[in-house]
Design a protein that fits this description.
Strand order of the largest sheet: 4-3-2-1-5
Oligomer: single chain
Number of strands: 11
Structural class: alpha+beta
Order of helices and strands: EHEEEEHEHEHEEHEE
Largest sheet: 5 strands, antiparallel
Radius of gyration: 17 Å
Number of domains: 2
Number of helices: 5
Length: 198
């Protein structure tokens, strides 16, 4: 069972559709992992995204589940130390003790770099994190956590993973009654991200 943001190895250029851009074929040919995305895939397949070198190079595809050779979860990356000195990596170092008692992980460019050793971060990169919250997090606790994250050396984008999807911590800590919950069937405006979408 794979989850959104897991990194998967084993996809080949043959798995890409004919319209895949050249950079996507190049990335897969180089053995780069793909990232599991939130989308509904046919039985036996996993919805994935291919990353290119540039931020705008993202390609949605599907991968046969049987082709998966290795899976690295965001949680597996939280203790990986990089030799590089960048704001996102400094932010990660400062936040490790803050999140030590939580079920959290590293996603986005930082997660990709920590998992592969391929340089994906730069000086202006945000730090993307996921926090698994099977039980509801109060808005007050969300505000407190956001206040800590906002002291980090770079922008931190933390997603709360509820049993029904993901909501941005910044949204949940904000003043709006309804927040955007990202699910496999799309994004929904909800009052409570810990309730199933009707």
């Amino acid at each position: 069972m794979v989850n959104a943001h897991d990194l998967l190895w084993g996809m080949t250029p043959a798995h890409l559709p004919a319209e895949a851009p050249a950079w996507a074929v190049e990335a897969i040919s180089a053995g780069h992992p793909v990232v599991v995305r939130r989308a509904v895939a046919e039985p036996g397949f996993v919805a994935v995204g291919v990353r290119g070198r540039l931020r705008e190079q993202r390609f949605a595809a599907v991968m046969p589940a049987a082709a998966v050779q290795r899976c690295v979860t965001p949680q597996a990356l939280r203790s990986v130390i990089s030799p590089r000195d960048l704001p996102a990596l400094r932010a990660l170092a400062t936040l490790r003790p803050v999140l030590a008692d939580e079920d959290w992980g590293v996603t986005g460019s930082a997660g990709f770099e920590l998992a592969t050793g391929i340089e994906a971060l730069h000086e202006q990169s945000d730090l993307d994190l996921i926090l698994r919250t099977p039980e509801p997090l109060t808005r007050g606790d969300a505000e407190d956590l956001l206040a800590i994250l906002d002291t980090a050396p770079c922008a931190v984008d933390l997603q709360l993973q509820t049993p029904f999807g993901a909501v941005a911590l910044r949204d949940w800590a904000g003043g709006s009654r309804r927040v955007l919950l990202k699910t496999a069937s799309g994004a929904h405006l909800v009052l409570d991200p810990w309730q199933a979408v009707a």
